[in-house]
Design a protein that fits this description.
Among the domains are: 52 residues; 257 residues, no CATH class. The protein is globular and about 70 Å long. The N and C termini lie far apart (75 Å). It is built from 25 helices and no strands. It is mainly alpha-helical. 72% of the residues lie in helices and 0% in strands.
Length: 505
Amino acid sequence: MNAATPTPRTPRPPSYLDAVVPLLALVGLVGASVALFGLKAVDGPLQVAIILSTMVAILIIFKNGHTWEEVQESGRKGIATVVGAIFILLAVGALIGTWNMSGTIPTLVYYGIKLITPAWFYPIAFLVCAATSLSIGSSWTTAGTLGVGLVGLANMIGLSPAITAGAIISGAYVGDKVSPLSESTVLAAQLAGVDLYVHIRSQVWTTIPAGLLALVAFAVLGLNRGGGFNSAFTEGELARLDALFNITPWNLIPLLFLLGLSIRKVPASLAIMGAALLAGVMAAFMQPQAIARFIAEPDTPAPIAAIKGIWLAMANGFEANSGIPQVDALLSRGGMDSMLLTIWLIIGAVTFGILVDDFGMLGKLVTPVLLRARTIGRLFITVVATAIGLNIVAGDQYIALLLPSRLFKAEFAKRGLAPENLSRSVGDAGIVTSPLVPWNSCGAYMAAVLGVSTLAYMPFAIFNIAAPICTLLLGITGFKVRHIPIEPAAAAPGVHADDTPKARE
C-alpha cells in the first residue's frame, strides 16, 4: 500500500493578534533603540530593530501556512521598489564629495554669507528651496544640493542647523507635493484615478495655507533667534575659504547643470551623477590646490592626482584638511560610503512594510476602522491616519501613497466623493510626513544628506506638520470637498442620510 501524498497546507488569513504582534515588536524595538542610543540609533541599532521586527513578521507568516518562497518573492518585490532610491542616494553621496572638492559648496557658502541677512535666513532658505523644488519636482535633489550648502552656511554663521534643516525640508516638500514634475505628485493622482492638474489644483487649498504658516513661523524664528552675529568670525572664515579655494561664480556651473537636467526630466540618479562627474572634472582645472591637499601625494603627476581625487571624493568623500574645525566640518563630507547606513535602513524598513501588507496584516487592521468611519469627516481622518501610520510602520513614502489609495478608492466613490479628495488627502499625509520618521526612507535620506538627525529637525519641519492638519480641516468642515453623482445602488451601507452630496449642498 502506497503512502498517501501529503496534502499541501492551505494558508490561512492572519488573526487580529497576528496583525498586531509585528507592529508591537516594531514599536517596542525601535523605541528601545532610541531610548538606549538616542540620536546615534540610526548608526545601526535602529536598523537592527527593524530587521528583528521583520523576523517576527516572517515567523507569523510561516505559522499561517505560507512558504519561504512566498516570503522571498514578497521581499524581492519590496526591494525592487527602492532600487531607484538607492541609486539616488549613492549619486548624492558622490555629488556632495565632488561639489566640496570643486568649490561648488564653498562658493555657495561664501556668497551666502556675503548676501544673506542672518535675521531672514530661515524664511529665505524656505523660499529658495520651495522655488527650486517646484521647478525640478524633487525634494531629494533640492535637499541634497542646495540644502547641503544652506546647512553648512548656517553652521558657519552661528544659526541653528536643526531649524535650517526644517526650513529646507519644508520648502523641498512644497514641490514634491504639487509640482507636475514630481513623481510623487504624479503617482498620487494616478493611484486615485484623477487628472494630474485637477489633483494639483485641489492641493493648492492645503499647500498655500501650510506654506504661509511655515513662512511666518520661520520669519519669527529668525527674528527671535537670540545671540549676536559675529561678523569678525565670519570675515575670518570667508578669508580662509577664499585661500583654500578659487571662489568664483564659475564654480556654480554644476548646480545650474543639475537644475537644467532636472527640468528636462532626466532621471534623478543620472542627473545627479552627471553633475557630480562634471564637478570633479572642473575641480581638476579650478581647484588643483584643493586636490593636492586632499591626495597629499606631492610626487604624483597632476593628471593622476586629479583622477585619484575625483575617484576618492565620489567613493569616500572629500576631506578639507584646513586646520580650522568649522571649515573642516563643513567640507569633509560626502562619498557613496556615507550613504550605506541609510541604504541599510531603507532596505529593512521596506521589507518589513511589504511583508505585513502582502500577507494581509495591514488589511486586517484597517478594514474594521474603515467600517466605523460612518461620516465623511471620519473617513478623511481615517485616510490621513492610515497614510501617516504607514509612513511610520512601513517606512516608505510609496507604500504610504499606494495602500491608502487602494484601500479607500472604492469607498470614496460609494459616498459620492470626487477622487481628487482622496488624492489630496493621501498626498498631504503620505508625501509630506515621510521625512518626519527616522526609519522612513525619506527621513533617513534627509538626515544623511543634511547631517541633522530626524528627531532634531522634526519640530521645525513646519510645512510638513501643517499640511496634513489643513487637509483634515477641509475634510471635517466640508470646505472644498467636491462631490460627484452616485447611483443609489452604489451607496455605501451605513452612510448617514446627511452625508449624501445633496444633503451636504
